[in-house]
From TrEMBL, chains A, B:
Keywords on record: FAD, Flavoprotein, Oxidoreductase, Redox-active center
Cofactor requirements of the protein: FAD
Protein name: CoA-disulfide reductase
Family: Belongs to the class-III pyridine nucleotide-disulfide oxidoreductase family.
Rhodanese domain residues: 465-547
UniProt keyword Transferase present: no
Length: 564, 564
C-alpha cells in the first residue's frame, strides 16, 4: 500500500506516524509546501514575543528525525498542484528546483490546512504588511522586527492569532492597536464575556479600535496608514493581517471533491471525501458541530490531530469515527485566561435553540487560602431540556480546568442540572468544596425547581423606572455609594428582613448585588414573604465590566487611539 | 417547622443555610460542640505553617454573621448528648455553663463529623501528643509551637492530614518524620503511584518510617519517645497523631439508628436515616461508592456539602438524591500535586473487578512552551467492558485539571476508550493538542484493538532471564548506560529496523523505554515484522522511581531516620 499525504503539519504528520505504527510495510510519502513539518503552529506568536527563544523548538520533528523513527518520506518545499483521482496520481512541484512530477497513490490524505484570509483591499501587497501562519511567516516578522525595531503595530483582526500577537508585541514594548469591524474580539465568546477580554487588553496598553472598517493601506512616513471608512486612518510602523483563515482547498476543488462551507472539503465521519480512497483532515474539512449538529468550520489543532489518527486507522483497515468538534479553546490574554466550549448564547440562538444562561463569579480556590482569584463563568443550556450547550470562562488560575470539566460534561451529554453532582477533587490550593462547576449546577437546578428566577443584562435598560416594579440593590451602603444602576435603591441583604415594610408586595422585585449571591439570598427572603422576585445573573460586577467596555467602544476617543 | 441540626461545620452549616433559603418561616437551631461554626477544616494545617496567617480566615462565618444573614440560631459550645426519637427531642448540654436542656424538633439533621482515631496505646494522653481536627486543635498546636519552639515532630499516620502537616511543619524549619505501619503513604493511591509522593516528601527532607508499628509513647529528655515494635524508638519534641478518623456516631447509636461500616450512620439516597424525620450527612454517614456500588466511608468536604444541601431540599418538601461518592481528592505535596478519583487498582481488585491499567508520562503543556512539567498518570479500567473505574495523577501543573476531567468522565459513565474523543481546550500554555487525558484514551483504544499489548511492573522480576524471551530496552545508548533493568539489552528505537536480525522471531519480546512512547513504537515495528511484542506501561522512568522508593523503605537506615 502506498499512501500519499498532502501537508505535513498537525493532521498530516499525525496520520503519517499512525499509519506507520499500524502498517510497517506501507510506503508513506508526505508533501509539505513549506520548509518545515510537524511544527508548533500554536506556538508561533510566542516566538515573536521571545517567550519561545529557540527556533528549533518550533519544529517538533525534522524530515530526518521523522524518517529515522517512522520511515516516512517527508518531502518539504514540495507542493501538490493537482489530484488525478481517475489514475490515482498527484502532480507535485519541487519548489526548490521547479521540477514537476507525478506520484501515484493507493490512498491519499489531504491535510492542506487553512490560509490567512487576505482582504481584497488597496495596498494589501505592501512589504510592511504581514500575515502569520507558517514558520516562514514567523521568521519573516521576527527578522523584520529585529532589523527595523518598529515601535508600533496595527493588527487587523481580533481572533486567536490577533490577540496572541498583540500580547507578544506588547511584551516587546511596541505600541499595539487592534482594528476590526466587529465590536467584540474573540467571536467564540458572547459580547458580554468578551468585555472582560477587552478590559484586560486595555489594562495592558493594547488599543482597541472595534467597529471600524479597514478600507486599505498606504505607505507613509516610513510606516503604514491603515485607511478606515469615514474616519481618520490609523498609523503604525507595521501591520499584521489576522482577519481569519480560509480552508486551503483549491486542490480539492479542482479534483472535483464535494465542497462545503467556505469551500471546505466535505468528509464523512470516517474522514472520507466524496471520492473513494481520498481522505481529508484538519482545518480544510467541514465538521459536524457536536452541540448543534450543524455543519461547521472549526480550525483547531486538537480536532486536526484526532482526525489524522482516524483517517490513518481507516486506511489501515480499521473503523474509526470522528464524533464531531465542540470548539473547546483557551487563550492566554496577558495575565488572564479566557476559555470556551460548545456554543455560546449568540450562536445557540442563531442555531434556533431556546436557551437560558447562568453567570457566576466564583473563586478559583478556597477564599481562605492565599492567591485565589475571581473568575467569571457563563453556562448556556437549553431551556426545556436543561441540556448543557456551552460555557465560557474568563479569569486567572483554574479557568482552563473548569472549561475542560464542562467540555467533558457536554461531550457526555450531561444536563446542566447534573453539574451539581460532579464529584471533583478539592483541597484549599486547588478549589472549593463547592467547585465553581458545581455552583453553576446548583444555580441551574434552582431555576429548574422554580427556586431562582432571573433577569439578564439586556433587561437592565428595559426595566420600567415608573414605580411599577421595585429595583433593589442588596449590597452594603458603601458598595452602593461607590456605583450602582440608575433607578435602583439600596437595602443591604442583612437588613432586608427588618425593612420589608419599605417594599410593596404587589410589585415584582428585580434584585442585584455584587456577584449574584447576596441578591439570590435576598430573593429567597422576599419570595418567602410573598414577593415575586428576580435575581440579576452576574451581579453588579458583571454589569459594570460590560457597560464600561461598551461605553469605551462607542466613544472612540476614550479608547485613546493614536490618530494619523 | 422546627429543624435542629447537630454540627455546624460543612454539612450542617450548608443544610442550615439551604433550609432558610427554601423556607423563610422555619425555625432552625444548630448545636455545635466546638467554639466555631462553618470553619475551613481543610485549611487548618496551613494555619500551622503560616500559609494562612489570619485566625479569622479559618472561620468562614461567625454565629452572628450567620444569624444576621440566615436567621439561624447557631449555638456553639453546645453538645447534643442524646436523641429521643419517640418524643422528637434532643438533650443538649451547654458546655460553658454545664446546664442541660431538652430541645424539640420536627426534623433533625445529624452532621457530627468524624473524630481523629485515638490508638489504645500507652502514653496516648501525654501533653506533647496532639491531634488535628478542629479550630481549637489547630490553635493548640500553633500555640505550643510558638511557646516551645520544638525542633522536631513525629507524625503518626500518612494520610491527608499527616502529609499536609508534614509540609507545614517543614516550612517552619522543623525536622519531621512520618511513621506508620503501612508501607505506603496516602492509601487512596496504589503503592506504585505513592512512590512519587514518597520521593517528593524525602526530597523536601521529610523522613519516612514506613512499615513500622507504633506501640506507645514515653516522655524523655523534654520530648517524646515513639516506641516501635522490635525497633529502637523515634524521638521528637512533639508528636501529632494523624492515623485517620472514625465516624462520630455515639449519639446515633444510642438513639437506635441503623449503623454501618465502623459505626457510621446508614442513610438512603435522600439522606434519611432508619428513623423517620432524622437525616444525617457528612463524614459520619455511610455512602455508596459511585464506582464499585459498595458501601463506603468517604470523609471529604465536597460530599458533605452536597449531602447537606440534599437533606435540606428533602426536609423542605423537595426530592433530591445523593448519587454516591467517588472519592475525588487532591493534595499539595510541597511543589507537587497528587490527585485521585474513582477506585485505584488495588481496591478495584479487592472489589472483585477484573481490571487493566495504562500508565503514561505526558507533559502538562506543549513541550515547546516554557515551564511544562511531566506528570505520571495511571488510568484504571474494567478489562471486559473498558468502563473507566479510576485514575491517579502525580506531577505539578495541570494535575488537578486532568483528575477533574477524569472524575467527570467517570461520573458520566464513559468508557476509557472514549477519553480519546474528548474535545478539550488547547493552547500552548495550558495543554497539548493531544491532551494527557486523550493520550490515555488512545492507549486504551490501542489495547482494545489489539494494537498494544502490555507488561506491568509486577512482571519485571518474574520475566525469565534464561533466554526464552527477549528483553529489549529501546532508549539511546547513553540512557541505557545510565541505568537499566538487569537482563535487558539495548537497541535504540531508531536503529531497530536495521538491527532486526539480532532478534529471534520465535521469542516474545518485552520492550521498555524511558516513558513508554518509544517502546510502543518499537513494539509496532516488531509486530509489523512478525514478532509477539509487549510494551512496559510507564517506562523506565516509572520503574526506576518505584523500585528506588521500595529499596529505601526496606532499608530503614537509608531513610536517614534519627534514632533515639
Amino acid at each position: 500500500m502506498k499512501v500519499v499525504i498532502v501537508g505535513g503539519v498537525a493532521g498530516g504528520a499525525t496520520a503519517a506516524a499512525r499509519i506507520r505504527r499500524l502498517n510497517e510495510q506501507a510506503e508513506i510519502v508526505v508533501f509539505e509546501r513549506s520548509g518545515y513539518i510537524s511544527y508548533a503552529n500554536c506556538g508561533l506568536p510566542y516566538y515573536i514575543g521571545d517567550v519561545i527563544t529557540d527556533r528549533s523548538d518550533l519544529t517538533l520533528q525534522t524530515p530526518e528525525s521523522f524518517f529515522s523513527r517512522f520511515h516516512v518520506n517527508m518531502k518539504v518545499r514540495h507542493e501538490v498542484t493537482a489530484i488525478h483521482p481517475e489514475k490515482k496520481e498527484v502532480t507535485v512541484k519541487n519548489l526548490e528546483t521547479g521540477e514537476e512530477f507525478e506520484e501515484s497513490y493507493d490512498k491519499l490524505i489531504l491535510s492542506p490546512g487553512a490560509k490567512p484570509t487576505q482582504p481584497r483591499l488597496p495596498g494589501v501587497g505592501l512589504d510592511k504588511l504581514f500575515t502569520l501562519r507558517t514558520v516562514e511567516d514567523t521568521f519573516c516578522i521576527k527578522d523584520y522586527i529585529n532589523a527595523n525595531h518598529p515601535k508600533s503595530a496595527v493588527l487587523a483582526g481580533g481572533g486567536f492569532i490577533g490577540l496572541e500577537l498583540a500580547e507578544n508585541l506588547r511584551e516587546l514594548g511596541m505600541d499595539v492597536t487592534i482594528v476590526q469591524r466587529p465590536k467584540q474580539l474573540m467571536n467564540p465568546f458572547d459580547a458580554d464575556m468578551a468585555s472582560f477580554i477587552h478590559n484586560e487588553m486595555r489594562k495592558h496598553g493594547v488599543k482597541l479600535a472595534l467597529g471600524h472598517t479597514v478600507e486599505g493601506f498606504e505607505e507613509r512616513d516610513g510606516g503604514v496608514d491603515v485607511l478606515l471608512k469615514d474616519e481618520q486612518p490609523l498609523h503604525a510602523d507595521m501591520v499584521i493581517l489576522a482577519i481569519g483563515v480560509s480552508p486551503e482547498t483549491t486542490l480539492a476543488k479542482d479534483a472535483g471533491l464535494e465542497l462545503g462551507i467556505k469551500g471546505s472539503i466535505v468528509v464523512n465521519d470516517r474522514m472520507e471525501t466524496s471520492i473513494s480512497d481520498i481522505y481529508a483532515v484538519g482545518d480544510a474539512v467541514q465538521v459536524k458541530h457536536f452541540v448543534t449538529g450543524q455543519d461547521a468550520l472549526i480550525s483547531l489543532a486538537g480536532p486536526a490531530n484526532k482526525q489524522g489518527r482516524i483517517a490513518a486507522d481507516n486506511i489501515c483497515g480499521g473503523d474509526s469515527h470522528y464524533t464531531g468538534s465542540q470548539g473547546s479553546s483557551v487563550i492566554k490574554v496577558f495575565d488572564m485566561t479566557a476559555a470556551t466550549t460548545g456554543v455560546n448564547e449568540t450562536n445557540a440562538r442563531k442555531a434556533g435553540l431556546d436557551v437560558d444562561t447562568v453567570i457566576l463569579s466564583p473563586m478559583s480556590h478556597a477564599g481562605y487560602y492565599p492567591g485565589g482569584k475571581v473568575m467569571t463563568m457563563k453556562v448556556v443550556f437549553e431551556k426545556a431540556t436543561y441540556r448543557l450547550l456551552g460555557a465560557q470562562i474568563v479569569g486567572y488560575e483554574g479557568v482552563d480546568k473548569r472549561i475542560d470539566v464542562l467540555a467533558t460534561a457536554i461531550r457526555a451529554g450531561m444536563k446542566a442540572t447534573e453539574l451539581k453532582d460532579l464529584d471533583l477533587a478539592y483541597a484549599p490550593p486547588y478549589s472549593s468544596a463547592k467547585d465553581p462547576v458545581n455552583m453553576a449546577g446548583f444555580m441551574v437546578e434552582n431555576i429548574a425547581n422554580g427556586v431562582l428566577k432571573q433577569w439578564h443584562l439586556e433587561d437592565a435598560d428595559r426595566l420600567p423606572r415608573d414605580g411599577s416594579v421595585t429595583l433593589l440593590d442588596t449590597r452594603t451602603v458603601e458598595e452602593f455609594a461607590h456605583g450602582h444602576i440608575d433607578g435602583f435603591f439600596n437595602i443591604p441583604v442583612d437588613e432586608l428582613r427588618e425593612r420589608l415594610g419599605e417594599l410593596d408586595k404587589r410589585k415584582p422585585v428585580y434584585v442585584i448585588c455584587q456577584s449574584g449571591l447576596r441578591s439570590y439570598i435576598a430573593c429567597r427572603i422576599l419570595a418567602g414573604n410573598g414577593f415575586d422576585c428576580y435575581n440579576f445573573s452576574g451581579g453588579f460586577r458583571f454589569y459594570d465590566a460590560v457597560t464600561n467596555d461598551r461605553c469605551l467602544i462607542e466613544s472612540a476617543t476614550a479608547c485613546g487611539m493614536d490618530r494619523a
